[in-house]
Amino acid sequence: MAKFRGYGQFCPVAMAAEVISERWTLLLLRELLYGHTRFNELKRGVPLMSPTLLSQRLKQLECSNIVERRRAAKGPGSEYHLTESGRQLGPIVEAVSSWGLRWLQHEMPNRNVDIALLMWDMRRSVRKDAMPAGRRTVVEFFCPEQAAAKRRWWLVFDKGEVDLCIKDPGFEVDLSVESDARTLTDLWMGQISIDAALRAETLRLEGSREQKAAFRRWFALAVVVRMPQWPWPELAGRVAA
């Protein structure tokens, strides 16, 4: 395959597209905007991207002054942080997400359903205050149609943090969620309601009334609201202007 050499245009749209429209780059920017800085964290957000290509894209973003590589604040290795130039891409990624949700989400093929990516997305963007405060809360997900290694997942809420476990963490389960991956994905993306899934018996919840109400709050937010909340109001103002 011939190497892409650019569009050969001075138009700023063409010049920007040369940087951000390469395959996987927008998804990588999405992960960086979520605040993921370590290589393995970024890899979990784009599981079909090879480590070699991920490293290559990070270097390209670094050369374009969109990402800067820093020594890790804790432990060995490096971290990848968005520069001001990179942060200004936030509203663009959000706009692409809004457009995709409005015009394409209802056409999502089953091949795009990935239970591991869905659980990772829940872990990183679920409201940490959705569960009762003051104690650890464990939510177990059971997807009977999945292969054995991907059939059970656990989200552990504790001290304002959320951990995703692929092995039983050994704590008492407060809420059990049984469903198939497609239904959970449609729920998470706002394509169906919890009540509709419960009536169709494609979703089953076992737990206290308090835990079930907390689970509903996870899905009460619009999908776009669950996208990264840009922590730079002054930057958002400049972009909007």
What does this structure look like?
- The chain is of the alpha+beta class.
- It has two domains: 1-87, Arc Repressor Mutant, subunit A, CATH 1.10.10; 107-225, SCP2 sterol-binding domain (Nonspecific Lipid-transfer Protein, Chain A).
- It has twelve helices and seven strands.
- It has a five-stranded mixed beta sheet.
- Strand 4 (152-158) and strand 5 form a beta hairpin.
- The chain is globular.
- The model is unreliable at 227-241 (pLDDT under 50).
Q: What order do the helices and strands come in, and which of them pair?
A:
Blueprint: H1 12-20, H2 25-33, H3 39-45, H4 51-63, E1 67-71, E2 78-82, H5 84-87, H6 90-103, H7 115-125, E3 137-142, E4 152-158, E5 161-165, E6 175-179, H8 181-188, H9 194-199, E7 203-207, H10 209-220, H11 223-226, H12 233-240
Parallel strand pairs: 3-6
Antiparallel strand pairs: 1-2, 3-4, 4-5, 6-7
Roughly how much helix do the residues carry, as a percent range? 40-55%
Judged by helices, strands and strand pairing, the structural class is: alpha+beta
Question: What is the CATH domain class of the largest domain?
Answer: Alpha Beta
- Beta strand %: 15-25%
Overall geometry comes to globular
Gyration radius, in Å? 20 Å
Unreliable segments (pLDDT under 50, ≥5 consecutive)? 227-241
List the total number of helices.
12
Q: What is the CATH third-level topology name of the largest domain?
A: Nonspecific Lipid-transfer Protein, Chain A
What CATH architecture label of the largest domain applies? 2-Layer Sandwich
Distance between the termini: 41 Å
How many individual β-strands?
A: 7
Write down the domain tally. 2
Order of helices and strands: HHHHEEHHHEEEEHHEHHH
Major sheet details: 5 strands, mixed
The CATH superfamily of the largest domain is known as SCP2 sterol-binding domain
Mean pLDDT over the residues: 86
**In which order are the strands of the major sheet placed?**
5-4-3-6-7
